[in-house]
Write a structure and sequence with these properties.
Layout (H helix, E strand, L loop, with lengths): L1 H7 L1 E5 L9 E2 L39 E4 L5 E5 L4
Parallel strand pairs: 2-3
Antiparallel strand pairs: 1-4, 3-4
């Protein structure tokens, strides 16, 4: 289920054209830190180390959701489940 979610429902894109648009911050949805209280929200985006599973992302949604990663031009998009 997690693999399917990451492959089919999550996308991170560099979108400088959306600069200035108000997107909910990824940090505002909270961390999935039940098993690791030391988790911290990302302050920048590194495609090598970024892990969307550390956030409380909605895995089952009926609408597209978009979040800004830190204060960068990277947008994380969650697509509706099929």
């Amino acid at each position: 289920m997690i693999t399917n979610f990451l492959k089919n429902n999550v996308e991170v894109m560099y979108r400088p054209g959306l600069q200035g648009k108000n997107f909910e911050s990824l940090a505002s949805i909270g961390l999935n830190n039940k098993y690791n209280a030391a988790l911290t929200a990302d302050t920048s985006y590194d495609p090598i180390t970024f892990n969307p599973l550390k956030y409380n992302l909605p895995m089952h949604t009926t609408v597209k959701k978009m979040y800004r990663i830190a204060n960068t031009d990277y947008i994380l998009t969650i697509y509706p489940s099929l």
